[in-house]
Amino acid sequence: MFDFWMENRDMMRQLETVQNIMDTRLEIDDPEIREAIKHFAENGGKMVRPALFLLFSQLGNAGQSGDPRIAASLELLHLATLIHDDIIDDADTRRKQPTVQAQLGKDTAVYAGDFIYTVYFELLVETMAGTPFLARNAASMKKILNGELTQKALMYQTDCTREQYMQAIAGKTAELLSLACEEGAYFGGLDEENVLRARQIGEHIGLAFQIYDDVLNFSLDFVNEKPILTDVTQGIYTLPLLIARDKEPAVISKYLESPQALTKPELIELAEFVKSCGALDEAISEATHLTNLALSDIAHLPDTTSRKILTEVTNKLLKRQF
């Protein structure tokens, strides 16, 4: 899980501490749920959210990292939402591993996700009492849910707008990254201007990350690894498709009449058209713009080793090759 951080041994050690906190706190009497949660929590994932919290916290505090329990709370909230998302999507795999619901059934998966939420709440009470961030976490949870509900409401809606798409991903993906950066800056003792800047950096990173992920869903390189255009067949119309639709409505409309029934050759044909009409390039351009906004704001943070690492990490996460 820490391969992403191989070039930063100090961050690897800090994330190992975060993982140990999570392992300890996720102990539960039910052996089936305990093993499923442990397996899920320790396999795959880059632990980006706790890492961002730690890096931002090091910008203040004389370079000392913030409370690893806060870092753990961010990752636990992320894991709980993933488990519940997999239940809703009836997903069999995540990170090339069986999902909790695929292994143990939906009922047990709901219990597992709910248990992780309880541990997350315990960590908030321990670390944030008397601060504005109890309320901030509650607001973030609400925004994450609203992002998911917006996406749900837009499913199979052929008149979905780019603005609505951005609203959905601002909640379901960008909000938790924004929270991680903001908490790190706040608990690291940065001034109000830099705390607000951190929040904005996290939002831009999250938006760019999701757009790049949505571009990858159209990549023909994935034909032999997973079903191509899984978002389209589930009625989730992401930025590349929306751009293509706006460019060539007559062509795209025929694919959206019954997207769940599209054959693999039809999906490949759609992916090739989205690329050839320039929609992928436009989506990548939007993600690049958001990445550059994040990098520009990072350049205004205190000049420390952590700022340098933040710049490197942002480039590594978001400047992908297509």
Mean pLDDT over the full residue set: 90
CATH class of the largest domain: Mainly Alpha
Level-2 CATH architecture of the largest domain: Orthogonal Bundle
Assign the CATH superfamily of the largest domain: Farnesyl Diphosphate Synthase
Binned, the helix content reads: over 70%
Number of DSSP E strands: 2
Could you name the ranges where pLDDT drops below 50 across 5 or more consecutive residues?
A: none
Order of helices and strands: HHHHEEHHHHHHHHHHH
How many domains, in number, for the residues? 2
Task: Please outline the major beta sheet.
Answer: 2 strands, antiparallel
Structure report:
The chain has helices at 9-25, 31-42, 48-57, 68-89, 100-104, 106-128, 133-154, 162-187, 192-216, 230-233, 239-247, 249-253, 264-276, 279-298, 305-318, and strands spanning 93-94, 97-98. By secondary structure, it is mostly helical. The protein has 2 domains: 1-129, Farnesyl Diphosphate Synthase (Orthogonal Bundle); 133-312, Farnesyl Diphosphate Synthase.
What is the topology?
Layout: H1 9-25, H2 31-42, H3 48-57, H4 68-89, E1 93-94, E2 97-98, H5 100-104, H6 106-128, H7 133-154, H8 162-187, H9 192-216, H10 230-233, H11 239-247, H12 249-253, H13 264-276, H14 279-298, H15 305-318
Helix pairs in contact: 1-4, 2-6, 3-4, 3-8, 4-6, 4-8, 7-8, 8-9, 9-14, 11-14, 14-15
